[in-house]
Amino acid sequence: xxxxxxxxxxxxxxxxxxxxxxxxxxxxxxxxxxxxxxxxxxxxxxxxxxxxxxxxxxxxxxxxxxxxxxxxxxxxxxxxxxxxxxxxxxxxxxxxxxxxxxxxxxxxxxxxxxxxxxxxxxxxxxxxxxxxxxxxxxxxxxxxxxxxxxxxxxxxxxxxxxxxxxxxxxxxxxxxxxxxxxxxxxxxxxxxxxxxxxxxxxxxxxxxxxxxxxxxxxxxxxxxxxxxxxxxxxxxxxxxxxxxxxxxxxxxxxxxxxxxxxxxxxxxxxxxxxxxxxxxxxxxxxxxxxxxxxxxxxxxxxxxxxxxxxxxxxxxxxxxxxxxxxxxxxxxxxxxxxxxxxxxxxxxxxxxxxxxxxxxxxxx
Length: 364
Prior knowledge:
By secondary structure, the chain is an alpha/beta fold. The protein has 10 helices and 12 strands.
């Protein structure tokens, strides 16, 4: 039988075998790549054999048969195998996204978000935690809070398991206490991409925190500065930590905490979407971590509880949660509050994000 026909038959058979195996196993995503690999093997195998036979004939001093095209088949088979393996690897790479819906519903899997973030839609595996109907703009009680906290914990643990060996991403438009709470279960998660939504006039699109450019590094970004009361009450067992990144928390908003020392961490010119790079996020995360675990600890030796009020994007919320999760048994009790502009007081409720009361609802 002509060698070309043998190679073609082998290629078709090998491709067909791998295709059938994938269909039986239900691996629909890799059927095309495995078929390409199969065809490549079908061409490569017989070509290697023919090349070996041909070399043996030549070395024995005889003339090689004419019409041998095994070299072309060998090269083509090898290229098909390489292409198939690359294609298969590319298909198997998944972008696992944890998206929290608590205030507004926006899915990363939407065509507009995929376009904004320049993602391959076949790679995106989005896991959504949606508690908008239960949260009802902050009209909740202890029972509903317990349901939301259980939902967050269960879903985040599942997500963390999926994102261990792949790309993990986080985004969300949810109340700050619950975003921080979610982060406390991600201390070992491989979260290395953060998506934020720019809702400012004329933009309204998603963007990803990228590595800082040379221009960004040269020009720098606003520094997160810590300030303590002029007269520190070292005997305080409770203090307030006001964290201003997206908006500046006013003295009026803090009026309900009168009588407690207020420690401020704030940016000059705090505004929405001010964080644009991973380095900027990392810097702010470290400042917050050091403030809670070093600066406050040193100045308030009798401290038992921190009331955390914050105006921060989701990327900061979740990183705070991760750092708290790593020190879950070493931090003092921290209560994170939700801001409701129309309520009186504006920080009407909060939840414990660590300690033995973790997840407990508190109303002021």
